[in-house]
Amino acid sequence: MSQPPQGPGTPPDPEEVPQQPHEQPHQPPQQGFGGPAQGPAGGHDGGYGAGQPGQPGGYGQPDHPGQAPHQPHQQPNPYQGQQQPQAGPLSPGEEQGWGVGIHLGGAFFSWLAPLIIWLVFRERSPMIDDHGKDALNWQITLFIGYVIGYATLIIIIGIIILPLLYITALIFGILGAIAAYNRRQFRYPFTIKFIK
What we know:
By secondary structure, the chain is mainly alpha-helical. The chain has a domain at 92-181. Helix content is 40%, strand content 0%. It has helices at 92-109, 112-121, 126-151, 157-181. Helix 1 (92-109) packs antiparallel against helix 2 (112-121), helix 1 packs antiparallel against helix 4 (157-181) and helix 3 packs antiparallel against helix 4. The radius of gyration is 38 Å and the shape is elongated.
């Protein structure tokens, strides 16, 4: 069948348009861990373990006998020889926050919270050092009271001791947190001084 002639504004018929191969933009060969990658002409396609020219894939194999293997460019370590920056003193707001955490943490998590906070921040703040020691001594004293209370549950005394200890720990923990928030010194009553 004959088709009418096409004018300047009509699209060409797809059957009559000659097909051109898709052209890929030129990309440089990729380099694998073993050395420079070769394109199809060199026999290697790059990637993990690609060897040197003329060698099968490998991990840094020499190009010629007697030649040292290819050494990848090593960047210097920017942290080598530098010391870690020392943490400075705590700001007043940080002292208030960690001081409150020492006392309320002790009221809810016994001696573990004051111990961790005190060990981490004692050298950065005299206030945290002071509050931490006192709260830790208080919590260790309370822990001894809890052990005695649980041991005496068999006889009725433990039923009275344990609730009194829990209520006392909560009340004095809140009072200590308020004192730390106001940046005042606080001393727990009836505390055995294990840590001085």
